[in-house]
Every structure is written in structure tokens, then in C-alpha cells.
Design a protein that fits this description.
heterotrimer; A: about 220 residues; alpha+beta; three-stranded antiparallel beta sheet; about 45% helix; B: mainly alpha
């Protein structure tokens, strides 16, 4: 290394070839903790170097690359290309069980669709928070159905194809009924008489099939 | 004439040797143990370490220790252990081998010492080569402004069909919902069995069939019998583990017997 | 809408063109002062990317430039070209001066790894002070390897990725003079005569090779 320095000192006024100067600028910008001005580059490079010209070449070389040579104030630095900023993030994916409120709301929508918020609340016996519905919408497990032809024309919710895919169902009609839930041991006791599966409520039936067929339209 | 020169050279060497030895003694603290001293001494032989005269080396070392003693320099124990070992080695090398004696020959020991010296020298050489390499942040450099990697947390919510159905079932049967529990009528728990047996083993001085501990009224219905037998067996194992009873079984599937352990 | 989602999900598994992957590897390596493993590169890049292949291209691209793409164990880093060190006086980090004992101990660990303290002492002919080992551990140039399958199951020492990085080595196999030492038999642990073949039992040999490969695993 010392030989090299000597050589350079000998050739005091002969600048290294521009390609070498470009390499030097590249190395300095890479290793520096702060942007480096043209003056400092020239001070650090062998006598007679022209950092400004080397920078023009270097800048061109990095065009379209993963990093770019950028001007910061009156100094120069190497920075990540803006479109690759996403690589500087590491996503940690965590899988969590849906909350009980969300599961119940989802279940009601699946079994009763199309169903309004008021109906969900009536079935659950508690109010449904905005966050729960939003979460299910965001997950694309439910979506808005058509408005109900009742006073106020409330919006309804239906389940999506995504929902069916996730739960491995061909249609919402494949969801087991209460009787099957019971025989599968998921229900302990018989429901009080009169509270039978509302899925077969004649009044609702039309709406339900309509809503369900809607699912397969799009 | 030729002889003269030789003599002269020999003299020269011995002077150099003496000076080296003195330097060694003065410097004894700077040395990293007897092997290091031996390596240093071996350099005066100016030969390939594999062909070094261990005998001569041993003599040099012993002379070094002797001189150190005269100068009343306190030598660490391992220097003296090495001196004793080299004296032993010297005797082995000088005396004709005793065929009745077991153990390695003087030549083997000498060869090993030469190997150790060569290996230590080799390690020193590569250590120097290693340190002379281009080094990070001295000759080549890492990125001056590393960018932090942001860690973002993304939560994926999930549920399965069972969650969904259980959720629905929970709502539909809310009024008469109770958590799913096994019907315990036909279950004799291990705790029950253990309680029962703790009371009974006091009387089990001789080998008794385990099945006789199954409580009355539990042997008619097969389901109840299974449960009681299983829990009684588990309780017996627990008591054996506690060292309260002994268990035995003559062969596979034969009745299991137990008795109190004193 | 659902169709679109499906499409997106499909394209999740279609890797970006290799030229783009090269840019991404470039950006990640430039942004990191520490070597980055191929696994981490792949984890951070879009699904289906092949960082190893992109690295081949990138390495070639930087041949002869002011910075180079270097391999450090099973990780990769960008480092300035060693011939330009003279420009970087400002960036020089003074490393603590190592004692002769520490240097020798380090070399013995590097060339004989995995090696126990007793073996180091055998080679140096002097006991290894706690401070020497501690210093090397603290510098993260050595770490504990797996225990040796000999009586007492002593711990062993091996060199780290930091060590390779510091001395510009791709792997421990590239240590200077390693081949010569091996062929001269100077890396064998030869037991003192009369002590029996304790140290060279075949199990040990396995351990030794395993230990070396261990370096390249993590």
C-alpha cells in the first residue's frame, strides 16, 4: 500500500484516469457516514482529480439501479431507490384468533344473510361495535348486500366468496343446521321450543335465497 | 585453517547462544511458557524444526534453567516441570533402550516435542499472516450509513368452521347454554380412587389383586367398570411412585397385585 | 372484485424479473453494514424471488468497481475495494490492539476449530487466561461451538461470521496457509506418545468436520 502512495505522490500532478476517480468517489460515498461535498471528495482523492466529473459518471451508472447517487444540500450520498423503500421493512405476520364478538357476528351473518345490523344485535342480544363489522369487511369475509325493503331501508350484510373459500364451503347453505350441530356434540341441550332454526322462517326465506343467489352472481 | 574457521564459528555461535540465553533470562516474564522458550532456543540451531536436535535443545533449556537459578530468578512451576521432563528425555536419548521397559521410546518423545515446536511455530506464522490481511474498517469498509430495517407487525385474524359453528350454537342456545361437559355420572376420577386407596392400603399387608380395590357398584355397568378400573390402576401407580405400595404382575395381562410397602 | 383478488393472489407467487431482483438485493446490501444471509434476502424480497441467483449477477456487476459484493460465510455484504483503503482515513476504526496471546489463541481457534481450551493450551504450551478468551468472545470473533464428545464434554470454540467479515474471508476454508498446514499434518491433534489414541478417535474427526461446516450453516 505504501508503494502505491509513493507512486501517487510522484505523479503529483497527473490525475488518475476518470474511471479510477469514479471508483474512488463510489467508495468514499459508500463508506461515509454523512453526505460528502465535492470539495471534500477532491481533498481526499489524489491531486488533480475532478470529483465533480467523476460524480457525473457515477450518477449515470447508478441510474435505474437499486441505489442512487443523490445530492443532499451541496453534498452527495448514496441512497436506496425510492421505489424499493418497502424492502427496508420486515413484516412480522402474526396469526390471531378472531374475537368472540367477531366470530358470533360472522356466524349470524352466515346463517341469516342478508341481515341488517339491527337484526344481528337482536340475535346476539348485544350491540355490534363498528370495529367488529369493519374488521370483517376488511378481511373480505362479509360485504354489503342489497338494502332491505323495510322502513329506513337499512343495509344488509352477506358473506363473500372469500368467506366460503376460507371455510371450505360451496355455499352458505352448506353450513350445518342446529340439529346437526347438536348431533355433532357442539350443542349440549335442546333449544326451547319455538326458537327453532330461523333459517326456515318462511317470511325470511325469499330474502334469504335472494341474498344467497346474489353471492354467486359476482 | 579450515579447522580454525570452524572453531571460530563455533565460538561465535556459543557467544550468540550465551547472549540469547541471558536475554531469555532477563526476559523471562515476557515468555509464554516453556514451549515458547524452547522454540526460541531452537532458533539458534537454525535448522528445520523437524530435524532439530532435541538433545541439544534439552541441554540448552537445562542450562537456561540453571542460569536462572543462579540469578535467583523465580521460575514458574511449569518451567521446572519442563526441565525435569527434558532431563528425563535426555537420559532416554543417551542411554541404550531397555527392552523390558514399557512406554514410548526417547525417539518418540523427541519426535513429539519437535512436532509441538513446529506446530507452535506454524501457528505463529499463520497468525501473523492473518493479522496482515486487509481488514474491515482499516483497509476495506462497510456502509457508512446503514439503514434500519423497520419491523412492522401485521396481524392475520383467523377462525375455522368449528369456531363459527360453536359461535352460532352459543347464540342460539344462549338461554340454556352451559359449557360442554362430559357426563360425569359414569366417571370414577383418579382423585376419588386415590382417596379410596389411601384409606385401604393400610390393610394390604399381603399381595392383593388390584381389581379388588374397584369400588362396589362400579363393576356391573361396563362403562363404569372401565372408568373405575382405569382410575384405580392409575392411583396404584401413583402410590407406587410415592413408595407406599409395591406392584407385581406375573405375565402380560395377568392380574396385577399390590401390597403395602414398609 | 373477487376475481381481481384471485388474480392478485396468483401473482403473489410470480417472482419479479431477475433484473428487478438484482436491484432489490443491491438495495438491501447497500443499506446494511452487516452481512445479510440469503435466507433473509429471500424473506424480505417478494415471494418467489431467488436472491442467490440475483447475487451472481450483482457480484459480477460490481467486479472492478469501487465497492464489491463479498461473501461472508453464508451471508453477503458490500465492502469497499481494499486498494482504495487509503482514501478512507476518516472512516478507520481503531481496533483494540490484541496481545500476542490473544492473536495466537485466535489463530489456533481459526485453524483448529472446533477446539477446546485444553487443546489450545496443548498447542501453546501455556495456560490460556480467562481474559484472552473473554476478549475474543467480546469482539465476537469467536463463539462457543458444540461440546466435544470426550470425557467431561468440554466446550469448544469456533470463529464467527464477524471474524470472517473482519479478515475478508469467504469461509474458514480460505484461511491463509490452511492447505499447507493440513498437508504438513500440523492441524492433526497428535497425542503425546504413550497416552494412547485418545484424541484421534473417529467420533472426534466427525465432530471436527461438523464443526467446520457449522460455520457455514449459520
Amino acid at each position: 500500500m505504501s508503494e502505491q502512495i509513493e507512486e501517487e505522490e510522484e505523479s503529483l500532478f497527473e490525475a488518475p484516469p476518470i474511471a479510477d476517480q469514479e471508483r474512488m468517489v463510489e467508495a468514499i460515498l459508500f463508506a461515509s457516514a454523512e453526505p460528502v461535498s465535492v470539495k471534500e471528495l477532491n481533498d481526499r482523492m489524489p491531486h488533480g482529480s475532478d470529483a465533480a466529473e467523476a460524480l457525473v459518471h457515477l450518477r449515470k451508472r447508478y441510474e435505474g439501479r437499486g441505489v442512487r447517487v443523490v445530492k443532499v444540500g451541496d453534498a452527495w450520498a448514496i441512497r436506496t431507490a425510492p421505489d424499493l423503500g418497502f424492502l427496508m421493512q420486515k413484516e412480522v405476520v402474526e396469526t390471531r384468533k378472531l374475537s368472540r364478538a367477531a366470530i358470533e357476528t360472522l356466524a349470524i351473518i352466515a346463517y341469516h344473510q342478508p341481515v341488517t345490523r339491527a337484526e344481528i344485535e337482536e340475535i346476539r342480544g348485544v350491540s355490534v361495535s363498528r370495529g367488529t363489522v369493519d374488521q370483517l369487511l376488511e378481511m373480505e369475509w362479509i360485504r354489503f348486500g342489497r338494502r332491505k325493503m323495510t322502513p329506513g331501508r337499512p343495509v344488509t350484510f352477506v358473506v363473500t366468496q372469500n368467506f366460503l373459500d376460507h371455510f371450505g364451503l360451496e355455499s352458505a347453505r352448506d353450513l350445518p343446521g342446529l340439529k346437526e350441530l347438536r348431533s355433532a356434540g357442539l350443542l349440549e341441550s335442546r333449544p326451547p321450543p319455538g326458537l327453532g332454526p330461523q333459517l326456515t322462517d318462511p317470511e325470511e326465506e325469499d330474502e334469504a335465497t335472494e341474498g344467497q343467489s346474489e353471492l354467486f352472481e359476482d | 585453517m579450515a579447522e580454525d574457521t570452524d572453531e571460530f564459528q563455533e565460538d561465535q555461535v556459543s557467544v550468540a547462544e550465551r547472549m540469547a540465553a541471558e536475554a531469555l533470562i532477563v526476559d523471562v516474564d515476557g515468555f509464554e511458557g516453556p514451549l515458547d522458550v524452547l522454540l526460541m532456543l531452537s532458533r539458534t540451531q537454525k535448522v528445520d524444526l523437524r530435524k532439530i536436535s532435541v538433545l541439544q535443545l534439552a541441554q540448552q533449556y537445562l542450562a537456561f534453567v540453571e542460569q536462572a537459578k543462579q540469578l535467583r530468578i523465580e521460575l514458574a512451576a511449569d518451567y521446572l516441570v519442563m526441565a525435569a521432563w527434558l532431563a528425563f528425555l535426555k537420559s532416554r536419548l543417551l542411554l541404550p533402550p531397555d527392552p523390558t521397559e514399557e512406554g514410548p521410546s526417547g525417539e518418540e518423545l523427541a519426535a513429539h516435542l519437535a512436532f509441538q515446536l513446529e506446530r507452535l511455530q506454524a501457528m505463529r506464522d499463520v497468525a501473523a499472516k492473518l493479522m496482515a490481511r486487509d481488514r474491515l474498517q482499516r483497509d476495506f469498509f462497510a456502509r457508512g450509513v446503514p439503514e434500519d430495517v423497520m419491523r412492522t407487525r401485521k396481524v392475520n385474524y383467523t377462525a375455522n368452521l368449528l369456531d363459527l359453528m360453536q359461535g352460532y350454537a352459543r347464540i342460539r342456545t344462549r338461554d340454556e347454554f352451559r359449557p360442554f361437559v362430559m357426563d360425569r355420572d359414569a366417571v370414577f376420577t383418579m382423585e376419588q380412587a386415590l382417596d379410596r386407596m389411601r384409606g385401604l392400603i393400610g390393610f394390604a399387608g399381603s399381595w392383593t389383586d388390584l381389581s379388588s380395590y374397584v369400588p362396589e357398584g362400579w363393576d356391573a355397568d361396563p362403562g363404569r367398570r372401565r372408568s373405575a378400573t382405569a382410575s384405580t390402576f392409575a392411583a396404584a401407580l401413583e402410590l407406587a411412585k410415592e413408595g407406599k405400595v409395591e406392584l407385581r404382575q406375573t405375565e402380560t395381562f395377568a392380574p396385577i397385585q399390590l401390597r403395602k410397602k414398609d
